[in-house]
Amino acid sequence: TLVLNPEIVSGKGVGKIVMKFACIIAKQSLGLKRLYLKVYTNNIAAIKVYKYVGFDSIKEKGKGMEKMICM
Fold first, then answer.
1. What pLDDT, on a 0 to 100 scale, did the predictor assign at position 42?
2. Rounded to 5 degrees, what are φ and ψ at 60?
3. DSSP 8-state code for residue 59
4. Cα 61 vs. chain centroid, distance in angstroms?
5. What was the pLDDT predicted at 6?
6. Which segments of the chain have a pLDDT < 70?
7. What does each C-alpha distance from 38 to 7, 8, 29, 55, 62 come to in angstroms?
8. Residues 44, 69, 19, 48: is their CA dihedral positive or negative?
9. pTM of the full predicted structure?
């Protein structure tokens, strides 16, 4: 688990860099071919980062505040 402090990194592109690097490590060092994740639909900033690094929305699950996007 990696947590970035939004008070320090928000709006600076750090999330994009970290996520892109994590995907590279997962694919090259660990040999993974596909990566999946779930994110709450109200976490717009995270969804933008995931789309930026190449994730696509597969489906939505849940209801209300528990609604998530599978990517």
1. 92
2. -110, 145
3. E
4. 16
5. 85
6. none
7. 23, 24, 22, 11, 11
8. negative
9. 0.79
